[in-house]
């Protein structure tokens, strides 16, 4: 079988006009950016506002492993299969961040015969939305420091600055740095850089309903406290307007396609372990007006991406999922069952490629937990066993039996990686049947009126299987301050490792008998939630010993190679 990059670069793509016409878009509602990418004007969403909405299907997974689970691949295959069945379907996904792409991932557009294309554009710059987010964020940082330099009319307490700078790279030394060194550059102080996908501007962009809502949310961002302890807002800094101006194109979703010509809306890129972790509200709303089914992906395992999609995105937007797909591979279940622990690179890949029914039988506990996590929201579940060549049927049977015993409505073996939409037809039929009645019992994990600390403990106990919280003195003081400010009704966004249900990546996929440490709490008033940093979670990832960037290059003809 050719590589994913070879398949993508050999694809013959549909004209943009055909994609737009299938969605019901007018030519003047699409702004081409090259031959195979277009921005969709928000006027289309306003024009279609009276059209009944389709059904929203969320694709999530077991706890991630180095073997990969294939959420994006499965989401692509599902949309292609639905269209093969005569159902109008659209995919909504995030744009990959360059940091992890050049770190470990090497690509984020799916794989095999279930991909979003054009591959190079999708994985790299697309239409520059990430750059616009970084520009808006860093403009605000410059204006904040400039405000302090020119008299500090807002009486900001310098030690309370909470607005970092951003860069879309895994740049470990920038986690903490000293700035302001040298004459005329301002007073020396410690500063922080976070990856662009962790920017509150990115979170605002992903949660906004429209351009007006985006502008208002930017103004609500808290950048510091004044000497009386009062929050200082971006609006008071007079930065929000210019930030919105930089984002006026980024607020429009990007239209691309799958290998089989299914429409795909790509928009925003918040991290799943430290932010909302799903595509934008705008893209989902547009898709639901243009199709019978919108398939969207939630980052990382169900305890992270799905929980945040339900508790954060659905709570603020009014979106309601009809069904969820929990993806697992036998390789991931073998790893959860103990295969390859302590190995890296090729040794790990070789170990996980060997069928092992007993390892799968041990590893399905994580699948059972993640199915139950989704069911806690009243959302029906279909499990997709994402098949690899060489899997044993007995391994698939063990996974499916465990999923059904945990409460899944169905469990299906899918072969979209090798066969495209044809290999996901059974999955599409199952999802369509389960989603037909929607999720009338949909519920949030906690009510708005629950205190912030109790919300965090509810997530920790019910999603992570923790015994409770250990809240640092700093975090306790921050929680008390936020409650006093009237922020207690906000939902909580838990930032933790994606590689374990706990805060500790080395603790295994589903440890028990642990307490979740909350070291710091941050208000993101523009995004509309409170972030809890657990364990050693970093908002700026680091590169591995051999980053994927080492393999990326260009040929003399200008063709990009090394993406995967």
Can you walk through the features of this model?
The protein has 564 residues and is α/β, with parallel strands linked by helices. A hairpin with a 5-residue loop joins strand 1 (30-32) and strand 2 (38-40). Helix content is 37%, strand content 18%. It contains 21 helices and 24 strands. The protein folds into three domains: 4-127 and 253-435, P-loop containing nucleotide triphosphate hydrolases (Rossmann fold, 3-Layer(aba) Sandwich); 129-246, Domain 2, N(10)-formyltetrahydrofolate synthetase, CATH 3.30.1510.10; 452-534, Formyltetrahydrofolate synthetase, domain 3 (Roll), CATH 3.10.410.10. The mean pLDDT is 95.
Short description:
The chain has 564 residues and is an alpha/beta fold.
Q: Any idea what the radius of gyration is? A: 23 Å
Q: Which class do the helix and strand fractions yield? A: alpha/beta
| The first-level CATH class name of the largest domain | Alpha Beta
Largest sheet geometry: 12 strands, mixed
- The CATH architecture of the largest domain: 3-Layer(aba) Sandwich
Kindly state the percentage of residues in helix.
25-40%
First-residue to last-residue Cα separation: 14 Å
Mean pLDDT: 95
Low-confidence stretches: none
Write down the domain tally. 3
Count of DSSP H/I helices: 21
The CATH superfamily title of the largest domain: P-loop containing nucleotide triphosphate hydrolases
How many beta strands in the DSSP annotation? 24
- Assign the CATH topology of the largest domain: Rossmann fold
Determine the strand fraction and express it as a percent band.
15-25%
Large-scale geometry: globular
């Amino acid at each position: 079988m050719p590589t994913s990059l070879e398949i993508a670069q050999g694809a013959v793509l549909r004209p943009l006009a055909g994609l737009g016409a299938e969605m019901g878009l007018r030519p003047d509602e699409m702004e081409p950016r090259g031959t195979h990418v277009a921005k969709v004007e928000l006027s289309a969403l306003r024009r279609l506002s009276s059209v009944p909405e389709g059904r929203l299907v969320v694709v999530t997974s077991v706890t991630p492993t180095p073997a990969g689970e294939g959420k994006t691949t499965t989401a692509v295959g599902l949309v292609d299969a639905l269209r093969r069945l005569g159902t109008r379907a659209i995919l909504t996904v995030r744009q990959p961040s360059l940091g992890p792409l050049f770190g470990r991932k090497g690509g984020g557009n799916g794989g095999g015969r279930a991909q979003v294309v054009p591959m190079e554009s999708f994985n790299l710059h697309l239409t520059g939305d990430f750059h616009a987010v970084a520009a808006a964020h860093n403009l605000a940082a410059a204006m904040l420091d400039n405000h302090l330099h020119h008299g500090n009319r807002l009486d900001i307490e310098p030690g309370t600055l909470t607005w970092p700078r951003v860069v879309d790279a895994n740049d470990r030394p920038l986690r903490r740095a000293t700035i302001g060194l040298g004459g005329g550059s301002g007073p020396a102080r410690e500063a922080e850089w976070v990856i662009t996908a962790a920017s509150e501007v990115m979170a605002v962009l992903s949660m906004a309903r429209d351009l007006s809502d985006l502008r208002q949310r930017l103004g609500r961002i808290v950048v510091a406290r004044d000497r009386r302890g009062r929050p200082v807002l971006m609006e008071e800094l007079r930065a929000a307007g210019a930030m919105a101006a930089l984002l006026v194109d980024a607020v429009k979703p990007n239209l691309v396609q799958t290998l089989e010509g299914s429409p795909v809306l790509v928009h925003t890129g918040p991290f799943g372990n430290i932010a909302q972790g799903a595509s934008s509200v705008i893209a989902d709303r547009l898709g639901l007006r243009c199709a019978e089914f919108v398939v969207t992906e939630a980052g990382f395992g169900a305890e992270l991406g799905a929980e945040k999609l339900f508790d954060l995105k659905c709570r603020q937007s009014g979106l309601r999922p009809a069904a969820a797909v929990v993806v697992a591979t036998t390789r991931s279940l073998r790893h959860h069952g103990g295969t390859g622990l302590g190995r890296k690179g090729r040794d790990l890949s070789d170990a996980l490629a060997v069928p092992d029914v007993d390892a799968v039988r041990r590893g399905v506990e994580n699948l059972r937990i993640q199915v139950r996590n989704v069911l806690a929201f009243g959302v029906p579940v279909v499990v997709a066993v994402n098949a690899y060549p060489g899997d044993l049927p007995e391994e698939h049977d063990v996974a499916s039996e465990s999923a059904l015993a945990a409460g899944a409505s169905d469990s299906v073996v899918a072969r979209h990686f090798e066969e495209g939409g044809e290999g996901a037809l059974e999955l599409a039929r199952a999802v369509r049947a389960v989603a037909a009645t929607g999720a009338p019992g949909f519920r949030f994990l906690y009510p708005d009126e629950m205190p912030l600390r109790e919300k965090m403990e509810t997530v920790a106990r019910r999603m992570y299987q923790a015994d409770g919280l250990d809240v640092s003195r700093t975090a306790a003081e921050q929680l008390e301050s936020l409650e006093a400010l009237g922020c207690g009704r906000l939902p909580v966004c838990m930032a933790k490792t994606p590689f374990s249900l706990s805060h500790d990546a080395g603790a295994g996929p589903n440890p028990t008998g642990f307490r979740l440490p909350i070291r710091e709490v941050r208000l993101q008033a523009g995004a509309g939630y409170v972030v809890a940093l657990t364990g050693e979670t970093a908002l700026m990832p680091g590169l591995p010993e051999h980053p994927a960037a080492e393999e990326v290059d260009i040929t003399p003809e200008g063709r990009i190679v090394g993406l995967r």
